Amino acid sequence: MPGVMKVNLLIYNERTDRFHVDNFDLYHARSRRTFTMEAADEIGASESQLRSDLGRVLLKLEQVQVEQKQLSNAISKPQPLSETERAQAMDLLQSENLLDRILDDFDACGPITSNSTSSSFQNSSPPAIILGNCQQLKNGFTC
């Protein structure tokens, strides 16, 4: 949510062995002021030093958010298939027994029944077998 940076912040003074913990919005001036006053009183530090430190924390968190967003954007871009992978995928999609292969994979997993607290499988293979079979299909198109 833009304009909100809720944090759980713990501040510790090694000299006095005292700490202060709070949960607040760093973008909210009143929240920062309250945190600074209470923390200074609690740990025996100056408000001006804590205010300065809190400003550095805010700037660092903003930097981390930008880096995470850039990383997320880079990761979320789809990776193109190699020519070999594309040819294999097209062969699979155009194969006459594609539906049978898919149904065989579902049969290998067995039906899943569920109630409010647990799931059970007809056989001992968990649903991850579908992912395993998909991986096998991707790598060699064999089950």
Short description:
By secondary structure, the protein is α+β, with helices and mostly antiparallel strands. 57% of the residues lie in helices and 15% in strands. The protein has helices at 29-43, 47-76, 83-94, 98-109, 128-140, and strands at residues 6-13, 18-25, 112-114, 119-121.
Fold blueprint:
Elements lengths: L5 E8 L4 E8 L3 H15 L3 H30 L6 H12 L3 H12 L2 E3 L4 E3 L6 H13 L3
Antiparallel strand pairs: 1-2, 3-4
Helix pairs in contact: 1-2
Any overview of this molecule?
With 143 residues, the chain is of the alpha+beta class. Helix content is 57%, strand content 15%. It has 5 helices and 4 strands. It has helices at residues 29-43, 47-76, 83-94, 98-109, 128-140; strands spanning 6-13, 18-25, 112-114, 119-121. The strands form 2 sheets. The protein has a two-stranded antiparallel sheet. Strands 3-4 form a two-stranded antiparallel ribbon. Strand 3 and strand 4 form a beta hairpin. The chain is elongated, with a radius of gyration of 27 Å. The protein starts with 5 loop residues before the first strand and ends with a helix.
